[in-house]
């Protein structure tokens, strides 16, 4: 970094004032974002007051006091920080974005009943490229509004998802679902794997915010040979894999009956962990399996709301963390949540550990916020680029307003972010240096059009379901 940037950063840590008289002319940057409170989420847990961040070409180039940044840089655009907290954008490590259009279609059901008798049939009947476009736009709107800047997605028609992400400005890891059954865009496991391979080849390294990955569904919708083939395909391009793993008692029973092993033991035996793996849910790991996850550097994504709603169980998050596993947070799809609110996931993650362990000190606010930001980014393999506000990282961050009555009083900013804030408090969302939401207004999507198209498609789905139910009576 340059001398001015280095001096400014050191001043924020040591109290030394940057000598702005050395600067003949303020350097030009694209964006300056100010904050009354800056929560960096760096390794030292740095918290700054009256601070600002300078951004050029989507990269954070300076972090300092507001006075020092404004004295050193001239920006094309800026975000005021009065009564606002600046923190890294939230990382949603597991989602099925387009399923926003199936929100509420089938509630209060067990996982396998929900999947086999409602969701899989509904997807065959209703999901096509247009469904995925509208549903993903609706999801991106909800996530941008709530402060999520990066998400990991597993669904169908990934080309459409990627096009939506490109237009709306978010960052995403996108997978084509590999599954051994008829799906909206594939006939079986062979067909879906071929489609996944083609998607990865088309997008790999082609876009700064989009990472194509593989998405094998689970070990109960794919057999060992099919799972191994998916890993082999991923290894050809060093691509990560996202998969549902050790999610429910059904899966554990199925794995033991079919393979003679628990899910994680089975995956390890077939070499599935040979490359980067993002494991969603992981509710039922044994004490002996946690070291396997840590040794194989498997990133785990905890989905507390979905796990509770479908009664999958309470994941041993504290045990995973103590065992050295990187654990992030995810919402799952809106059909099993039923929203994409990462603030809710933070609170519930903390509360579930406290009550299940009968320990109010379990999974404190700072750890949970880390799971939603830096550790979440590390769990999905993007920790070197995002997850914290540090010089050299990409400019993915959000501003949270402290104006609502539930922030009065605010004694501990980090605690309030986890236990008080909600998605309505997010006022600005920035990804790769681009302002996607300013003062609560989403700029990168035509939200009126998205709402209109989603309502029209939902009406068709509702009418079809009503007709089917009527015919079945």
Describe this structure in words.
This protein is an alpha/beta fold. The protein has two domains: 3-88 and 395-442, Urease, subunit C, domain 1, CATH 2.30.40; 90-379, Metal-dependent hydrolases (TIM Barrel, Alpha-Beta Barrel), CATH 3.20.20.140. The chain is 40% helix and 22% strand. It has 17 helices and 17 strands. Strands 1, 2, 3, 4, 5, 14, 15, 16 and 17 form a nine-stranded mixed sheet that branches. A four-stranded parallel sheet has the order 6-7-8-9. Strand 7 (148-155), helix 5 and strand 8 form a beta-alpha-beta unit. Helix 4 (129-146) crosses helix 17 and helix 13 packs across helix 14. The longest helix is centred in the last third of the chain and has 26 residues, at 447-472. The chain is globular. The relative contact order is 0.15. Mean pLDDT is 93; it is low at 1-24.
